[in-house]
Amino acid sequence: MKDKKFSPFRLVNVHQLKKTFLLMAGVTVFYTGSAQDWSLQQCIDTAQLHNKNLQISRNNMEIGAERQKEAKANLIPKVNLNADYKYFAELPYQLMPQVAFGGPQGMYKEVQMGVPHNMSANIQIAMPIYNSQVYGAIEATKIASELNNLQYKKTEEQVFFEISNLYYNAQIMLNQKIFIDSNLVNTGKLLKNIQLLHSQQMIKKSDVLKIELQNEQLLTQRELLVNNIEQVMNALKFLMGMPFQQDIKIETEIRNKSILEYPNLIPVDIEITFSQNKLLLSELGTLKKSRLPSVSLFGSYGQTGFGYDEKPNEFLNFYPISFVGLQLSVPLFNGTVTKRKINQKRLQIENNEMQIDLVTEQNQMMIENVKRQRLVNQQTIENSLKQIELASTVYNEMVLQQKEGTANLTDILMADNALREAQQNYLTAVINFLKADLELKKLTGNINTIKN
Q1: 372 and 387 co-located in one domain
Q2: Mutual angle of helices 268-289 and 337-404, in 10-degree steps
Q3: Are 126 and 308 in contact (CB under 8 A)?
C-alpha cells in the first residue's frame, strides 16, 4: 500500500454558499454511496449536514446572535400606549382650609371633588442616553456570541475526531478480515494436502484435526470480526446522521502513514479559555461602571377625560396633557453588594488566567508525547511489513518442504502463527499511528485538515 499525503481541508462553515454546496454533495453520496466506497472526507461532509449535535450547536450560534441583537435593541426608544377608565362610586375626599371660604384660620373641611367618570390615554416614549449596564450587556453578548462560535467549532472538531477514529477502526478491521481470508485460503490448501497425506497413511489423524481446528478458529474469528465491523459501521452512520438501513462501504486502503509536520495553531480549548477571560474582564468592567449615573430621556402626550352623566349638567370633556424630561439616576449605596461582586469577578479572572497556563502547558506536554508515539508506531509499521514478508516466505517454504517430506506439521503451524502475529502487529501499529496522528492534529488545532 502506498502512502499518500494529506490534502488540505478547509473547515466548512455555516455560510449559506458552503451549506448549499455540502447539501448537493450530501445528496450525491446518499444516492451513490452503495455503488462506491466512501472516503473519510465524504463521511465528514455528510456529518456536517446531518449530525444532530452540529445542528444543535448551529442553533445555539443563532440564539447567541439574537441575544446580541436583543441587547443592542435596548438603545432603541421604547414607545408605550396607556389607557385607563375609572368610575368612582364614591368621589375622593379632599381637605380644604376653611379660611378660603371665610372660616377660621387653621380649620379644615372635607370636600368631595371631581366627577365619577375619569378616562385617560397617552403615548409614552423613553430612550436611554447613557446606561453603563446596557453597554456592558452589549459587549458581554458580543463575547458570548464568539464563545458560541467556538463551542460550535469544538463540537465540529469532536465530531470529526470521532468519525475519523471510527473510520480508521473500520479500515483496520476490514484489513484484518482480508488477512483472515488469506489465511483461510492457505489453511484450506494445507488441509487438503494434509488430508491427502493422511489418506496415504503418511501422517496421523491428529495432524488433520489440528489443521481442521485451526480452520474453525479462523472462521470463528472472521464471524466475530464481521459482527464488530457492523457495529463500528452503525456507530459511524449514527455520527453521520444517516439511517442504519443505509448501506455504505468505506475504502479499505489505509492512507496517511507518513509523518507530516503540522503548524502549531491555537487549539479550540485554549481559544475558549481566552474568550472566557475576555467575558470575565467585560463583566468586571460593567460592575465597576454600575456605580456611574444613568441618564434617560422620556416624554408623554395624552388626553384626560372627565364625565358627568346626571341632569341637568351632563358632559364629557377631554383635556390635553404632555411633558418631556430627563431622568438622572445615581447609585449611592447598595450595601457593598457591588464591591463583593467585583471581588468575586477578580478571583474568577485569576483562576481563568491560571487555567489558560495550565491548559497551554498540558497541551505542549501531550504534543511531545504524541509525536514520540507517532514516530515509534511509524517505525513499527515498517518493521512489521518486513516481518510479514519474511513470515510469508518462511510459511511458503515450510509448506513446500512439508510436501517434500523434509518439514513436519509443527514447523508449518509455527510458521503460520508467526505470519499471523506479524499481521496483527502491523495492524496494531497502523491503528496506533493513525490515532496518534489524529490526536496530534487535534492538539495542534489542525483537526480540520482531515482528508483522505
Answers
A1: yes
A2: 180
A3: no
What are the Cα distances from residue 164, in Å, to 168, 378, 439, 441? Answer: 6, 18, 11, 11
Pairing type for strands 117-130 and 294-308 reads antiparallel
Q: Are residues 185 and 279 located together in one domain of the fold?
A: yes
HSE at residue 53, side-chain half, CA atoms within 13 A, is 15
Q: How far apart are CA 291 and CA 283, in angstroms?
A: 14
Answer yes or no: is 341 within a domain. Answer: yes
Inter-axis angle of helices 132-199 and 40-50, to 10 degrees? 140
Q: Are 47 and 241 in contact (CB under 8 A)?
A: yes
| Cell numbers representing residue 78 in the block | 421604547
Please tell me the distance from the alpha carbon of residue 116 to that of residue 305, in angstroms, as a whole number: 11
**For range 426-434, the mean pLDDT:** 92
What is the mean pLDDT of the segment spanning 393-411?
84
**What is the spatial distance between Cα 61 and Cα 145, in angstroms, rounded to a whole number?**
7
Mean pLDDT across the chain: 87
Poorest-confidence range of 28-42, 159-173, 325-339, 342-356?
Answer: 28-42
Identify whether 5 is part of a domain: no
Chain center to CA of 377: 30
Q: For the stretch 147-178, what's the b/e string if a residue is b when 16 or more beta carbons lie within 10 angstroms of its beta carbon?
A: bbbbbbbbbbbbbbbbbbbbbbbbbbbbbbbe
- The upper half-sphere exposure of residue 4, i.e. CA atoms within 13 Å in the direction of its Cβ, equals 10
The C-alpha atoms of residue 416 and residue 343 are separated, in whole angstroms, by 71
Contact (CB, 8 A) for 173 and 439: no
Query: Does residue 237 share a domain with residue 372?
Result: yes
- CA dist 179 → 225, 388, 418, 426 (Å): 12, 11, 13, 11
Q: Return the SS3 of 12.
A: coil
Q: pLDDT class for 194, splitting at 50, 70, 90?
A: confident
DSSP 329-394: E-----TTHHHHHHHHHHHHHHHHHHHHHHHHHHHHHHHHHHHHHHHHHHHHHHHHHHHHHHHHHH
34 & 97 share domain: no
Residue 65 three-state SS? helix
3-state secondary structure of 197: helix
- Shared-domain flag, residues 273 and 349: yes
CB 145 within 8 A of CB 72: no
Q: Cα separation of 432 and 369, whole Å?
A: 13
Range of the domain at 137: 16-74+131-292+335-449
